[in-house]
Amino acid sequence: EPFTPGDMVTFRYNKQDITGRVERVGWGQTRLRGKDTRPTYVPNSHFVQTAVTNMERITHRKYDSTISLRFEDSAVLPDVLANIKDALRQLPKLDALSMPFRVNLVKFSEYALVIEITCYFATKSIDEYLALQQTANLEVLRVVRECGAQLALPTSIVTYKQKKNSSGGEGSGSGSASSQPPGVRASDKTSVAAAI
What we know:
This protein is an alpha+beta fold and 196 residues long. Helices cover 23% and strands 27% of the residues. Helix 2 packs antiparallel against helix 3.
């Protein structure tokens, strides 16, 4: 049987994702209680035609994270990768033997070195997993800081060039905003200012 009373299940019903804890399995219908405490009654015939995920029978929860480092940190990148893996290996419930455990540089984005971290914790409790996830995130930040690296942020480089005026001196830079609207003569400045 796919579930019994007390199990937390997820499935699709009438094009909606339903998640709830099974309270009662009757002859014709099953009653579930959602996270908002509202009961949902589903005909048992529906479970014959749909896939049901029973969260009570999972053995692991997946930790999947992506961080971005600056290109300037490429020299310490090998240390960052190795130290993140060593730090996560010390966490309780981490299953590095039977489940994938990866810390890899996966791509170069426009402004950063992108690292993906994947591992699994041997717990089905969502509360315990959230605590382990938080600890893993803090360990990753600690390793990055201790290696002298920094998380990358989107950046833009603006080049400002001076251009010479007709008298040979340097005028306003290209791209600088004009002090008066285009197409307005000097004699019109007063009326323009009044209009503004």
